[in-house]
Amino acid sequence: MWRLFVNRRHVASENAVICYWGSWSTYRWSIALFEVSNIDGSLCTHVVYTYAGLQNGVVTSLDPYNDLEESYGKGNYKKFTSYAESNGFKPLLGIGGWNEGSAKYSEMASYAAGREDFADSVVAFLQEYGFDGISLDWMYPTQNGGAQEDKDNYILLLQTLQEKFSDYGYTLAVAVGASPVLTKSYDVANIGEYVDYITLLSYDYHTYTDMKTDVASPLYSNDSYSVDFTVEQWTNLGAPAEKLIMGVASYGRTDHLSNSNNNGLGASVSGAGTAGQFTQEPGLLSYLEYCSSSNWEVVHSDDPLYTYAYKGNQWISYDDEAVLEAKAQYVLDKGLAGIMMYSLESDDFGGNCDTAYPLLTAINKGLGRISK
Q1: Residue 4: pLDDT above 60?
Q2: Within 13 A of 252's CA, how many CA atoms are on the CB side?
Q3: Are 307 and 265 in contact (CB under 8 A)?
Q4: Helix (H) or strand (E) run with residue 197 in it
Q5: Which of 270, 259, 253, 255 lies closest to 314 in space, CA to CA?
Q6: Which residues form the GH18 domain (predicted)?
Q7: What is the pLDDT of residue 372?
Q8: 140: preceding bond cis by omega (within 30 degrees)
Q9: Most buried in the list 1, 78, 171, 330, measured by CB within 10 Å?
Q10: Distance in angstroms (rounded) separating the CA atoms of residues 43 and 62
């Protein structure tokens, strides 16, 4: 069913706080179970429902039981957009993600009819379910199964989407890589012409695959793997600072120490840290999983800025409240559009360790959206 909307094109009047929500967290249990009603709309200007995907070149639900009402499904698409309307944030649909790969998007964007069909399907999808726009999370053009032509076709796809969206006032955001070799994938200077937000996936610079401990998402570093380097690279290549969103993670990257007595930065690593109870991914712990476990020895530094912790042979690098407030101040200093947090369900959203949403609250304090 199609719905009509008044024009509500995004006009930046405050720093954005874009919150990603992994809709699969509705299948979790105990303190990690996250439903639509767990979203705190006062802490997010936009919330991205992840993920929809591609089938035969058009947008589709990747989890019909969770997303749709048909066949006795949960109907979370409409629950989400209805909740957004009464809780003061813009509901966006995330399309893509790492598991979707790049090949399908490369094929769809490779010819004009494919781009048109996709854009038309997106508009129909947004109208049917009541979303206010999308975050296009194609990971990544020219990589992960993509083609060399993706760099040009990506711009053509954004142009097509922008033209289709203009009649409805839909928000068009894109999530983009933070690698120093981003010029292989993106015509940076032209992206800003067609989108409202460019969300930098400026985290996970270091993981256990480095085989030594390091700060996962440093604000500054002596090499090209830092938030500051990414921001400077994008702006130097022509991206408008006022459309750039700094991405931060509400989870930590974990390592298995080779020697539990050697637990500082640069310590030898034998593999990924132990998987968390709820996220169940080696090398990663949500902040909720981390804070609700005990006996971590925490190391925090203000200069340079980082936090890590260790317990036996387990080691984690994460952004705590102080780091996130400092990153928010960086956003203000650089005149960026705001911050994206990935993701809501990884924060301590229920206040199991202390107050609810400590990381997201720190971001809002740092941006001046709420008082310190």
Answers
A1: no
A2: 32
A3: no
A4: strand 197-200
A5: 255
A6: 15-370
A7: 81
A8: yes
A9: 171
A10: 27
Structural domains in the chain?
A: 16-250+319-366 (3.20.20.80)
Contact 192, 240 (CB under 8 A): yes
- Whether 19 and 333 have beta carbons less than 8 Å apart is answered as no
**Amino acid letter for position 243:** K
What are the tokens at 59? 């947008």
**pLDDT, tens digit (0-9, with 9 covering 90-100), for 38-77:** 999 999 999 999 999 999 999 999 999 999 999 999 999 9
Question: At which residue do the structure tokens 């090209």 appear?
Answer: 224
Q: What is the DSSP letter of 367?
A: T
Q: How high does pLDDT run on average in the chain? A: 95
In b/e form, how buried is each residue of 336-356, taking b as 16+ CB within 10 angstroms? bbbbbbbbbbbbbbeeeeeeb
pLDDT digits (tens, 9 = 90+) for 224-246: 999 999 999 999 999 999 999 99
pLDDT band for position 14 (cuts 50, 70, 90): confident
The reply to whether omega before 51 is within 30° of 0 (cis) is yes
Give the chain's count of helices (H) and strands (E): 10, 15
Can you give the pLDDT at residue 181? 84
pTM of structure: 0.95
What is the SS3 assignment for 51? strand
Radius of gyration of the chain (CA): 20
* CA-based end-to-end distance of the chain: 45
Q: What is the DSSP letter of 275?
A: P
